[in-house]
UniProtKB/TrEMBL annotation:
Gene expressing this chain: pilV
UniProt key word Cell wall biogenesis/degradation: no
Keywords: Membrane, Transmembrane, Transmembrane helix
Presence of keyword Transmembrane helix: yes
InterPro entries: Pilus_4_PilV, Tt1218-like_dom
Domain of life: Bacteria
The protein, known as: Type IV pilus modification protein PilV
Domain Type IV pilin Tt1218-like: residue ranges: 29-103
Source organism per UniProt: Alloalcanivorax gelatiniphagus
Length: 164
C-alpha cells in the first residue's frame, strides 16, 4: 500500500477558495472605509462652510435681515468658474453690498467644494434661523421640515442653528 507524500489537488483548491473569500472580504472592508472617509470629509467641509456663513452674518450685523431672508439665497447649485468679484477692496461698500457678495461667495463655495452643494438660510422655528448646507441629491427643503431638523441616516445635509 502506498502512502501519500504530497498535497492533493483538492486540498490546494480548498485552500485557494478560503484565501479568495478572505481577500474579497478585506477588499469590501477597504471600499466601505473609503466611502466612510469621503462622507466624513464632505460633512467636515459642509460644517466649515456653515460656520463661515454664521460668522459672516455676525460680522455684518447691519445687514442681518438680508442674510436671514431665504429668498436672497436661492436653491440652485452654483459652481465652477471664477469666484464672484468684489469691488469693496478698493471702494467703499454698504453693508447690503457686502451681504450680497457674501451670499454669492458662499453659494459659489458650496457648489465647488461639495458634490452638487447648495447653501441657504432658513427659519427653523421661532426666532431661530438655520444655515443649511446640502449636497448630492438631497433636497435642501427636506433638511428641515415642520421645525424639525432631519436626522435620518441617509441625510446628506448639515444644519447649524443661529439664535439671537
Amino acid at each position: 500500500m502506498r502512502q501519500q507524500t504530497g498535497v492533493g489537488m483538492v486540498e490546494i483548491l480548498v485552500a485557494l477558495l478560503v484565501l479568495a473569500i478572505g481577500v474579497l472580504g478585506y477588499a469590501g472592508l477597504q471600499l466601505s472605509a473609503l466611502k466612510g472617509s469621503e462622507s466624513a470629509q464632505i460633512r467636515a467641509q459642509a460644517t466649515a462652510l456653515a460656520r463661515d456663513a454664521l460668522e459672516r452674518i455676525l460680522v455684518n450685523e447691519a445687514a442681518r435681515p438680508l442674510y436671514l431672508d431665504r429668498d436672497e439665497w436661492g436653491v440652485d447649485q452654483r459652481s465652477f468658474g471664477d469666484a464672484p468679484p468684489m469691488d469693496c477692496y478698493d471702494n467703499t461698500c454698504t453693508s447690503a453690498e457686502v451681504a450680497a457678495w457674501d451670499i454669492e461667495e458662499l453659494a459659489w463655495q458650496a457648489g465647488n467644494l461639495l458634490p452638487a452643494g447648495r447653501i441657504q438660510v432658513q427659519a427653523c422655528g421661532g426666532i431661530t434661523s438655520c444655515v443649511v448646507v446640502a449636497w448630492h441629491d438631497q433636497d435642501i427643503d427636506d433638511c428641515i421640515s415642520n421645525g424639525q431638523i432631519a436626522a435620518d441616516e441617509g441625510t446628506e445635509c448639515v444644519v447649524m442653528e443661529a439664535a439671537r
